[in-house]
Amino acid sequence: MKILIVEDDPSLREVMASALKKEGHTVESAEDFHSASEKLELYSYDCILLDIMLPGGSGLELLSLVKKKDTKANVIIISAKDSIDDKVSGLELGADDYLAKPFHLAELSARIRSVARRSRMNGDFSLKSGNVVLEPETGRVYVDGRQVELLKKEFSILEYFIQRPGHLVDKAVLAEAIWGDHIDQTDDFQFLYAQMKNLRRKLQDAGADIEIKAVYGFGYKLVEKQEQPGRQASRADKGQ
């Protein structure tokens, strides 16, 4: 999951970022209204942890910007101002939850998982494509019911594509989504190619009926595998 922390307290910001990174999330941060608005304009996130009291502006203004952008990001307001008015205003503007300072990191993680669950359809929290099932909460992937061992970045790449079936994804957009906005500083995507090569091999070896197809000169797309003519003929023979 890609998370943006908007918090002006540097020590709290660092503690939150460190804890969430250890859980396997891609984490970015902003310390004021201006830097947060820039990031929200340029990048997309799965979850935004948003302080209300910020240098340069209000977190509620940022919340309005997020909702106007029509993003699917979950927003959790985090503020020392535990007033009913702030809580009501945030929820009415579209926030998914409200967490008052001080809080335990375990509760923060639980709230993030909770809003992610609520945003999924029909109470089924797994992601499915073909015979592949991905469980975001456990970090496990199954192909035809058999678990496939993936590294954290491989898992994140597969999760990204399963949520965007058939979408053509630019390699730079994919790299930024998985590794964070600091990826803008490089024009070498060898790290991405290596992770993608391993992931595609593992899916093929496991017998997945989906594949992440390379689109020359652009990026990648998650598609269903096309049946080979020999396989189709074999099935036809069996039916005779």
What's this, in brief?
This protein has helices at 10-22, 33-42, 59-68, 84-92, 105-119, 152-162, 171-179, 190-206, 229-239; strands spanning 2-6, 26-30, 47-50, 53-54, 57-58, 74-79, 97-100, 127-129, 132-135, 140-143, 146-148, 169-170, 210-215, 219-224. It is α/β, with parallel strands linked by helices. Residues 228-240 have low confidence and may be disordered.
Query: Taking Cα atoms only, what radius of gyration do you get, to the nearest Å?
Result: 20 Å
Mean pLDDT: 84
**Order of neighbouring strands in the sheet with most strands:** 2-1-3-6-7
The strand count comes to 14
End-to-end separation: 49 Å
Portion in beta strands: 15-25%
- Contiguous runs where pLDDT drops below 50 for at least 5 residues: 228-240
What profile does the largest beta sheet have?
5 strands, parallel
Number of contiguous helices: 9
Name the helix and strand elements from N-terminus to C-terminus, one letter apiece. Answer: EHEHEEEHEHEHEEEEHEHHEEH
Range of helix content? 40-55%
Please give a structural write-up:
The chain is an alpha/beta fold and 240 residues long. The protein is 44% helix and 23% strand. The strands form 4 sheets. A 5-stranded parallel beta sheet has the order 2-1-3-6-7, sandwiched between helices. A 4-stranded antiparallel beta sheet has the order 8-9-10-11, with helices on one face. A 3-stranded antiparallel beta sheet has the order 12-14-13. Strand 8 and strand 9 form a beta hairpin. Helix 2 runs parallel beside helix 3 (59-68).
